[in-house]
Amino acid sequence: MARYIDHTLLKPEATRSEVVRLCREAIENGFYSVCINPSYVQTAALELQGSDVRVCAVVGFPLGATTTAVKAFEASEAVKNGAAEIDMVIHIGALKSGEEKYVFDDIAAVVGAAEGTIVKVIIETGLLTNEEKILACRLAKEAGAHFVKTSTGFGPGGATIGDIQLMRETVGQQVGIKASGGVRTAEAARQMIEAGASRIGTSSGLVIIRE
Predict the structure, then answer these.
(1) What pLDDT score was predicted for residue 36?
(2) Domain holding 60: CATH number?
């Protein structure tokens, strides 16, 4: 179970010492990555040096409404500083306005700036209709993203089994799915994986692996 988990600390008041502790917990428990805000990427990369734990940085987080150029620069900086994965937020308003080209270009720019680094696209399912979820997943796949992700954890709702199943049906087996938002127990994590999730984003990783 631990290798499914992105050990997450994204609260705005997170301190450097808390990020260091997060990294040490990830090493001790064999989590796949730590997921953090970009300003702490260098700290985490240094702390995780020599381990199998990856650094995952969020981009355009949590609203997704920064410009494409800013998201691309943020992704590029994160990679230079040691991020091995990027979790970007789509422009939710553009998606809901039917601006498919904007959303596609936004994702593609981050994929390009990440230069081969894994990119996960957060679609914020709690704000979308099923049709919009399908469209967001399709655009993410077409733009070259490696994963689609349910939620930031800052929006309404979180990961649901129904959303994971819908996302898997849409992207097929070639694209990963990260269930994030409200996954706090081992049983919930198992249900998400059975529904098609290939990664779990949670701040409750220690609870999950000890249940």
Answers:
(1) 98
(2) 3.20.20.70
